[in-house]
Amino acid sequence: MAAFGTGLGLYDLLKNKHNIFNKVVTYRQLISGFFFAMGALGYLVSAQPAMLGLATSFVLSQVSIVGATVSGIVVMHVHKTRKEWLATMVGLLLIVLAAAVTAFLK
């Protein structure tokens, strides 16, 4: 997936003369991508039977979405309406609550 995105960026650079690597927003998005990558790596490591198991590790990887969303909002200085903030926070809260319920079911 990363190779596909890099390929699209290089295609855009060569074809349209848009250098996305000179823009600050490109590097800011790396920060929230880092949180998602850590969640994916944690999923791969902990999904092994000797570790947490598949069900628990999947839930933990989904909780990484919370970190990626919050870091993206903070780093990118996102401005939202009250309704958008409410929907975002309710969604993040539901993710955390679902993770907690799943953890206690085991």
TrEMBL record:
Its main location: membrane. Signal peptide: none annotated. Keywords: Membrane, Sugar transport, Transmembrane, Transmembrane helix, Transport. GO terms for molecular function: carbohydrate transmembrane transporter activity. InterPro entries: Sugar_transport (IPR010651). It is a multi-pass membrane protein. This is Glucose uptake permease. It comes from Weissella viridescens. The lineage of its organism: Bacteria, Bacillati, Bacillota, Bacilli, Lactobacillales.
